[in-house]
Fold this protein.
Amino acid sequence: MELPGAGVNSNECESVSSKQEMSEEFEANTMDFLVDLPFATIDIKDDSEITDVPKVNLERSKENECNNKEQIKKRKKKRKDYQPNYFLSIPITNKEITKGIKILQNAIIRQDEQLARAMSSDGSFHITLLVMQLLNEDDVNVGIDALLELKPFVEEILQGKPLTLPFEGVDTFGNQVGFVKLAEGDHINSLLEIADAAKRTFQEKGILAGESRTFKPHLTFMKLSRLPWLRKKGVKKIDPKLYEKFIGHRFGEEVVHCIDLCSMLKKKQSNGYYHCESSIVIGELESPSSVVLQRYRREGPSWPSGDKNGGEPDDAELVRLSKRLVENAVLKAVQQYLEETQNKNKPGDGSSVKTEEADRNGTDSDNRK
């Protein structure tokens, strides 16, 4: 008895197999290219598997198989065109951590000066939760909406508890990307849940998001891919001896306060951080200080003083800026109230016009007398 599907042409099978190999090779090449961008490693479920042919109604199954192949082609085309250009970032701002990273970077540069330009710049330290493709302003607006919808999911995961990330030790991805490791603990599970919720939320909005690799949260401090010419000079990997003194080093703890939607390609802010489209505050109410910090990250040190040379504000500066923000809001409300009150007495509401006309009539009458 001949099994269903046994009559399928062997050339077709070879063709399908060849296409699958080409697709796998393309995906591998794409991942090599994307390593230069601020990516997390997030797993994407592969939806392109072909289901078994049913044993009944063979003609209908062949028709369905053709439809499946067309859908697979469309999915593969989308994946080929998928070039992430935005990402969700957890900014790392604890001065103890950033100072420790600078010490690490300088120690490596002292051993090999040509690696200086491979280092991540000041102000750009972050953990990537999710990467995505946003092609235009409409997509960016959808991404902002998705970020806002993510907040209640994050709050449900954290249950009112702060998310503290302790950084300890150094490692690499294939001796090409150097990063500071997250110490083991429950915070890892919370971070994984948040990353999964983010991917689900953005994908449900129709946004192409995620990667094909397993998500491993990390804090990048250098990438050899920034200096491709080093390969010609024989520097093809990060030598573990360069950072061996920091393998067990404790860099400090970061309390997560916000998640930012950032652009990989737009010009960075003057403080070194990525261009930020929007943010959500994590683990606290939106206090004036958090609002100030979010606006500062979006607009850079030029806000509100106009000085573009300053670093990120410290606690005292945040308090000062918060007070100014509240004072400006109160002043604006008072001005608006006064304007509305004055508008009621301006010509146009009827009563003042009638009064003026009455005064004029009375004056004319007196003059006639």
Q: What stands out?
A: The first strand starts at residue 86 and ends at 91. The beta strands are 86-91, 126-133, 164-173, 177-182, 208-209, 219-223, 250-255, 258-263, 276-281. The first helix runs from residue 10 to 34. The helical segments are 10-34, 58-81, 95-111, 137-158, 186-204, 288-299, 315-344, 351-368.
